[in-house]
Amino acid sequence: MRQTLLRAIFLLLLLTGLRPGPAMASHLLGGEMKYEYLDANGPVGTPFRYRITVFIYLNWECPPAGGGSSATQSNVPDGRCNIFLNLYNKTTGQRIVSTQGANTFPCTQISCPTLQNPIQNDQQPTGTFRLPRISNPSITPPQPGGCSIPAGSVPPVRLARYEAIVNLPVSFDGYYAVYTDGTRNFNIDNLQNPSNQNQTLYVEMAPPLLPNSSPTFSDTAVVVICQGDTSILVNNAVDPDGDRLIYSFSTPYNGNQGNAPSFMPPPNPVTYATTGGYSATNPFGTGAGNYAFLNASNGISRYATSRVGRYVVAVEVKEYRTINGSEVLIGSTRREIQLVSRTCSPNNSPQFTPATTSQPRLYTVEEGQSVSFGLAATDPDGNPINLRANSVLLDGSGPFNATFGGSQGTVLPGAPTGSATVQGNGSVSGQFVFNSQCGNGRATPYDVVITASDVACGSKTVADVFQILVTKAIGPNRISGDSIICDRAVARTYSAGGPSATAYQWSVTGGVIQGASTGNTVQVLWNGTGAGRVVLRGISAFGCPTDSVVRTIDVRPAGALAVTPTNAAICPGASTTLTATGGTTYQWTSSTGQTFTGNTITVSPAATTTYSVSTSDGICTTTRQVTVTVNPAAVADAGPITTATCSGIPTTLGTTSLTGYTYSWSPAAGLSNTSAAQPVLVLTNTTSTPQFYTYYVTATTAQGCVARDSVRVTVNPAAVASAGLDRTTCSGIATSIGAASLTGYSYSWSPATGLSSATAANPTLTLTNTTNAQQIFTYILTATNGTNCVNSDTVRIAVNPAAVANAGTNRDVCSGETTTLGTPALAGYSYSWSPAIGLSSATAANPTLTLTNTTSAPQTFTYTLTATTDQTCVSTGTVRITVNPAPIVNAGADSVICDRKTITLGSTALTGYSYSWSPATNLSSATTARPVFTAVNTTQTPLTLTYVVTATTSQICVGSDTVRITVNPRPLLDSIQGAASVCPTVQGIAYSIRNPRGTSYQWLVTGGTLASGQGTAAITVNWGTATPTASVRAFQVNSLGCSSDTVVFPVRVNQQLVTQRPTGPLTVCLANGPFTYQTQLTNGSTYGWQIIGGTQVSSSQNTVQVNFTQPGRAKLVVTESSNPAGGRCLGQSDTLYVNVLPSPATNLLVAGPNRACVSQGPLTFSLPGATGSTYAWTVNGVPQTSPGGTLPVTATTAGTYTVTVRETNTSGCSGPLYSTSVSVVPPLAITGPANYCPESRTGLSYTIGQSSLLTTYRWSVTGGTIVSGQRTGTIRVDFPAGSTNATISVVDTASANCAATFTVRPDNANVALFVASVDAQDDRKINLTLQALNNTNNTSQISIRRRVSGSGNPFQPVGNIANTSTSYTDSGVDADANVYEYQLLLTNSCGTQLFSPTHTTIRAQATAVEGGTGRDEGKVTVTWNPYQGFPVQLYRIYRRTAGGTAELMQTVGASGTSVQLTTGSAGFDQCFRVEAVGPGTLRSNSNEACVTFANDLTFYNVVTPNNDGLNDQFIIKNVELYSGSKLSIFNRWGKEVYKTTDYRNTYDGANASAGVYYYLLELPGGRSYKGWFEVVK
């Protein structure tokens, strides 16, 4: 990312009327000059190209209308159209005479229509260099609104820029550039007779052999300073070469306007005024209050003067560069400017914050690192502040990556720096961030100029310069390793030296890196001869490469030394011969210390040995090595010397195979494999005596070494074994196996289980089978005879399982209980039970048994089971069954009871029984025979419960029984209401059930008599005499016959009444009354109310309504009186305290507009309520989410909006609902031209859109001037020439938020065609390189226009492209047949058509002429038309043969249009292309013109090998063009003496005798040539 910074322009306020003067004043206010070295591609004699730029500050005040003159008017308000520069050779001091001659250039001044003589001629003196004016913008800034200048109006000022490229001859010391114009303004205070003194700009230019571009001031210089105050100006400059800059005051120059033939610097100085003490360093004089200071390091200057006036000041910038370790002055430039001191409006200067001023002024980072620092300023007067950073680092889309205040900055056209500005009111801050990148490092720091200017009348500025020094990445500075390479077969190590780096980059020329190339060492295998190179760069921790380190390597040709053994590997005891070639003398050394000489040696080492042979050519000693490997001796092992085996028994011979060995056995009889290391041998002996055999093994190693061994094998007769016949038996039954014993034999049976003897020939076997299936047992008999030969035999015994009879376990059962006997049936079994009584089956394996016992004692029964298998095996089993009597159980009868009643369940317990009830809930015991049940029913419906009793006898016989209990509910408890305190003898006092649940109640009265209502929910009571124990009681009986509890209501019968405390709201809001309070109503009583903090609104019997009069705590007390026959009774209640909260105010108004525009920002409404209150807002009845006292409302449509609000204070009390309304009308909209152009920028009309408000409008224009229409609906505006957007604003003065803005953008677009070039790959395409300049605000497309050159036809459009495009390819052409002219058309936003200069393409044509006899070669003539469109410096002619790569053949001067090339031998098909070379990178190709040569073969018949350069070889002309040819040469006897493929005229017959020879040349495809030639010696 790259950042951009706006180029700042200091305010210019040149005041007139400061003092009387002549009737006419000149236009010069100052200037500066710079130069830029371009290249050395200029014409011969003046090859060095420089771009020279001159800036002239001039007053462009116009004369008064109707004639007359002004004291400060200019006669060239636009500036001169051209200026003429003198250049001098610094070495000789002589003037460099240009070739431009003496010319007259008409110049029309267009800015001032009142100028009497607008057309003036610019006369170019002979020998001068013309610099045309390329821009002249007005740089007069507007004053802030409402400001006035005490001394009068502000005259306009232009900055005219003149620029040209000049070609200069060589000068070893450099040049002087001088421009003089006259005269100065008449009223400059610090000069003597200023109108008679010229203004001279002068710069010293570095020599072309030291390429340099001068520093460029980063800001426009014209400024105003305030009388009696210190002003800060920035004269900081940027040097594109990174040279160190030193700033100083300089004397303004007053040079001669003539064209002197020589020049000796400096020019004549100005003459200062004779009084006042004026000088270069005291431009305001030496009096009190006059001061001038210039910071030599950064160009910041501070000026103060006690007087109003005009003063000329000059600042010189010298640039120093370190060359060969010494700092050298290489040039200087200067700025001269006229300062105006005026009386400024009172204003305090902004100030940088202490945090800003305390920061370092120099930051040092390594390239790749980032740096960031904060900047801030405040204004004592609270004025708006512009905080601006200006630096080359803020280059927009350029290579640097910097921001200020998050902005990448903006670079104005031609500016060396960019700038970014942040704004604030009263204070402002911004962060400068620079992310340095690889390649940003340099010896001098980057300047960041910071200015803070307030926006006020008499604006003030403070400035400072921060510097960032970016150091280059530090890394290795040397390479260590071999510089001379004698043996290229050995990789060499090279190491980095000096400071270490994070990583390394190695590269090699003439060799190949072996392995990694990113460490601090590298291995190189050199593969060429001559000079090689090792190049090293370090990579820093930030990823940046360091400077390269180079080491040159001398790679010597490879030696021819070679060593060849007859055998490189031998067996022990063998020998081999080593032969060395390619040297002169040979020295041999073995690794065992032996030495030899001579080119051949014979060796017979006992172990592997390395032999080295060396030879030397005086510089390099070449060594070669050969290793003679002594292979291990072979090992052959056939096994033990003798071995014995039995007939038919396998035995293994030999030993384990060795790696790499091969084996061979003999004889092969009986062997499993004759090539195995351990074959298996099986032999039979059918006799009764042993037989003997011998076997041999031959072992050969992988290296061919051989060994042999043998083994003697004895084969004994086989043994006889008989285990008997297979048989079947039963478990536990004995049987005999085997046969009679043989003499001399021993026997062994396996396994030994069940055998009477394991070593007898025929033992007895007894086996058991405990499973349910037949088992097979195998017995092996091993018989060993007298020669230890062994044989074996096998017998299989099938053992059937024994029968299993399982009647089951003995058990106790209860009478009538069913139980299962036996076990599950086994497969193949049959069963029989006895007796069969009670069994479900007498033949089942596991029948069920059910028996009853009607007695009171247990009874026992025995059952027998007989089981028979399918192999007829039999077994029996018995089981004993005890049958116990059944239990007796009784849970009792079912019952119905009421809630809370009890009942006894069950019956009397029996001896030996235990009991268990379920569930146990509400039972007195769950384990007794007769528990007590307590009824519980909390519902109002009957509940039916089931209880089960389980009885268990002492024999664990179990029985159960069930009882059902229905529990009816009781009525719920009620409460009684009525008078709790009554007067004695009072009659008819009412009591009632509060919210009765039933209809029938029974009442009981103590201390009085029930007068009425018995059986109902309400009664009246006549009370008797005083008593403290009086009461009223009541209960209810429901329909199920269950009664409720009795509720008791105590009553106090006494003369002193206990009046109940009032009830009602305890916390109220003051404004929300009236509030109702009451006490208990008693018949015959009357009530009186006492209210503190409020007023009684009304009362009725026992109630009262109250309005409270103040916030705080209010009190209510009620007094009761009764007067029955028994006497008067009185009572007073306790006090009721009420918390009265304050309410919001009721006399507020909603603040807010009553008229506004749609969508012009939120409308604000507010209610001035109490602190901490919340608010409920609605807009057109829709509740809003804003709880505060202010509501923003965005009006999206026109109409009437009703806003309501209700306040709720911190006490939670709400106020009244307030309401207001606003009439919303459609928004304002400005219409008019969206762009202004150089030719259309005055008198542009702008108007507002539809509006229902008939009122006045206040217009303002930033970047333009309102000519007419202020306070109406339409205005006319003039815009100055420039590239700054203008903003038009309008405000409806009668409505809120009714405003509109409109941006008018300048369209300064132009279109340039740089190159029209035929495509290098396709002559049917032409590529255009182009650019739409200043196209930021232009949306038109570029029209590509073409015509055939010379046709006279108009241009025709061939395509349209976006104006951001930089190239176009025209595919509808034939560049072989035509020359084309191209022109670009771009229409700007004002409708003006802008055309580019015309470019004409190149058409090349080629004509071929075949070569003649002898050595005459074919020629090609190439012609072309001149390229038109850019200055052609030269033409390059390229040739491409047989579809190969183009090669440069010749370079022709700019005026050339043809060339002849001797090129026939280069190939059959040849194509030529012409390239026009222009300044910089401008290049244009022609079409490709092709020719064809026959290039027939011609054979020369004489060879004279005497090295005189004539006929030294057998020449076949053009033979190199015929690839794949074969040449054979024969002597006169037919013997072939030479043969080759692809002959290249190299046979010289040097080793042949003189005479005639015959040749045969064969071409691919079968064609051949025969002939003869003679070798003459």
From TrEMBL:
Coiled coil stretches, renumbered: none
Key words of the record: Signal
Domain PKD-like per the UniProt entry, residue ranges: 476-546, 974-1043, 1144-1215, 1226-1299
Signal as UniProt keyword: yes
Domain of life: Bacteria
Keyword S-adenosyl-L-methionine listed: no
Residues of the signal peptide: 1-25
Stored NCBIfam families: Bac_Flav_CTERM
Entry protein name: Gliding motility-associated C-terminal domain-containing protein
Organism of derivation: Hymenobacter sediminicola
